[in-house]
Amino acid sequence: MSITRRNALTLLASLPASFALPWSTAFAEEGGNLVVGLRTSEPRHLNPAVTTVGGVQLVSANIYSALTRFDRDGHPVPDLAKSWDISPDGLTYTFNLVPNVKWHDGQPFSSADVKFSFEQVLLPLHPVGKINFAAIDRIDTPDVNTVVFRLKYPYAPFISLLEVRHATILPKHIYENTDVMQNPANSQPIGTGPFKLAEWSKGSFLRLEKNADYFKPGKPHLDQLVFVIIPDTNTMVAAMEANQIDFAPLGVSFDLVETLKQRLAPKGWVIGTAQYLFRGTGSLIINTGDPILAKREVRQALAMLVQKDAILSTVRKGVGRIAENPISWYVPNAETDTIYKPDLEKAEGLLDAAGFPRGAGGKRFGLSIVVSTGWAEFEPIANLLRDWLGKAGIDLDLQKVDEAAAVDRMFTTRNFQLGLSNPSFGPDPAIMAKGFTTDQIGKGAYTNGMGYSNPTVDKLFAEGVREIDPAARHGIYRKIVDAVMTDVPVIPLYEDDFAYAFRSVFKGLPPGGTHRDSYEDVSSVG
User: Fold this and answer.
1) CA of 401: how far to CAs of 180, 420, 438, in Å?
2) What integer pLDDT is reported at residue 251 of this predicted model?
3) Using CA atoms in the order 121, 410, 328, 379, what is the torsion angle rounded to 10 degrees?
4) Would you say residue 281 has pLDDT above 70?
């Protein structure tokens, strides 16, 4: 992909009128506005307690809070909970809440909101709530500033699951005795976070204003935070060149990183790459319920047709690392017993044995692949896959759709054969269960869209969350990895780092490594 000056001007001219933003970036340590370009589909709502869709979380992390948040190194640190204690047996977690916190409508926040959010929203309605919080026996609220979680059994990942991505706290007084999924507050959110929703121009932008009553003294620093919907990479780059946005957290395709460094760095832009804290893994998702793909030999053959090193070098320009399993950051590739190396001859033998010999014209069968336009690297990866599968007599049809449609087709309706996605199973390996256990089939974004079901794997996941000895726990997840990669419901391609760009007049960017971080620490310095 190449972007010329003429292309940039043409793209800018094609932007909607509303993109001529009615605000400008101010330059002061306190105050000012930050305009963020979102290379995702527009959020359908802003309630992160009932979804795992990234576009919702990117915005709402600034509106809502949770008991904890992650620091830049991935360690849980206080948010609504100022401190906590864990009993020696690992069964009781006591959280001391920050006092005098207010919701955006001025109502007081209390332990009742925490109890309500877990019992009435997160457990029954969050796509992975049941699996994340199955260990909870009961929740006690001895006073307005104390919450006590009593667990049925020791649960190793518990403290890592209490941040806003998995455990957003909602206002009880807004949601109680309502249909949570249809509540108007889903699009007109009332949170406790550093910013309040001020304006939502559908199809264009979301404007957030500083929460003057935020419970963290001196934060946030910015007056306004604006998210502009720009799902097209070319348009994003054009907006960057014209300084119409200040930050592109996911808007830089890897083939443009070096070019943009040369062109934009002299104009005060910082372009770089960083590791994704939640450990995203670029993956080829396989629908195991499809008549062709239901045969394990076919899935294994596909794995032998993929050249991961070529994807890493040509599409991602060396950014990231090859992944041989869905949690290669925890179970290293060197410890993975089942690894598929490119081998066309062996792949063809498996396809023959599976009952799919070459027919007329050397063809075996055709497949389709869902390709989200929200990820710049997915289409070139799909083109490579089409070439590689074609050598084995498999036609591959690319079905390009926006990110929301791709997520729906792969993880909810499961109306697909193959798909490219970037699920994240960190920072604790137990989170991998949402993508691979039988009870998570078709439960929504980034759950078990493959339809994969293996009773042995289900049992191992149940053991893994209860094991608190690090070495024994690692051994359990190594068994999980080997079982999954033998069955091949997914072909992991690469550990995902992300590319970003921001104007150097801001400090604190990127705000963290999760893509779901609040901008409370960001300030303008020009």
Assistant:
1) 29, 11, 27
2) 65
3) -130
4) yes
Enter the tokens of residue 496: 């995902």
CB 36 within 8 A of CB 246: yes
- Which stretches within 22-157 are classed as H helix? 54-60, 111-116, 123-125, 129-132
* Residue 247, beta-bridge partner list: 36, 502
Residue 415: name the closest of 442, 378, 382 by CA. 442
Q: Tokens 């970036």 correspond to what residue?
A: 25
Q: Which residue has the higher pLDDT, 507 or 426?
A: 507
Which residues lie closer than 8 Å to 256 by C-beta, 6 or more apart? 1, 3, 233, 237
Tokens, residue 401: 């759709």
Q: Nearest Cα to 80, choosing from 195, 174, 197, 162?
A: 162
Nearest by Cα to 265 from 503, 1, 509: 503
Stretch (H or E) spanning 91 = none
Q: Which residue has the tokens 């864990």?
A: 86
The tokens of 257 are what?
Answer: 């990183």
- Peptide bond connecting 154 to the previous residue in cis, omega within 30 degrees of 0: no
Contact 35, 226 (CB under 8 A): yes
Enter the tokens of residue 40.
């995702």
* The model's pTM: 0.80
Structural domains of the chain ordered from first start: 30-63+193-273+500-525 (3.40.190.10), 69-171 (3.90.76.10), 281-495 (3.10.105.10)
Helix or strand holding residue 497 (H, E): strand 497-503
From the list 83, 175, 189, 98, the residue with the least C-alpha distance to 144 is: 98
Distances in Å between the Cα of 463 and the Cα atoms of 165, 313, 432, 476 are 24, 38, 13, 8
Mean pLDDT of 501-505: 96
Candidate ranges 134-148, 463-477, 498-512; pick with highest mean pLDDT: 134-148
Distances in Å between the Cα of 97 and the Cα atoms of 63, 146, 148, 294, 521 are: 18, 6, 11, 49, 21
User: How confident is the model over 473-502, as a mean pLDDT?
Assistant: 95
Flag whether pLDDT at 8 surpasses 70. no
Query: 230-251: buried (b, 16+ CB within 10 Å) or exposed (e) per residue?
Result: bbbbbbbbbbbbebbbbbbbbb
DSSP H or E segment with residue 420? strand 418-421
- Give me the count of residues in the chain: 526
pLDDT one-digit tens code per residue, 9-27: 333 344 443 334 433 444 4
- The contacts of residue 20 (CB under 8 Å, 6+ apart) are none
Q: Which DSSP letter does residue 496 get?
A: P
DSSP secondary-structure letter at 34?
E
DSSP letter (8 states) at residue 384: H
- Residue ranges of alpha helices (H) inside 402-466 are 403-411, 455-466
CB atoms within 10 A of CB 336: 18
CA distance 142 to 148: 8
User: How does 69-104 read in b/e, with b if 16+ C-beta sit within 10 Å?
Assistant: bbeeebebebbbbeebeeeeebbebbbebbeebebb
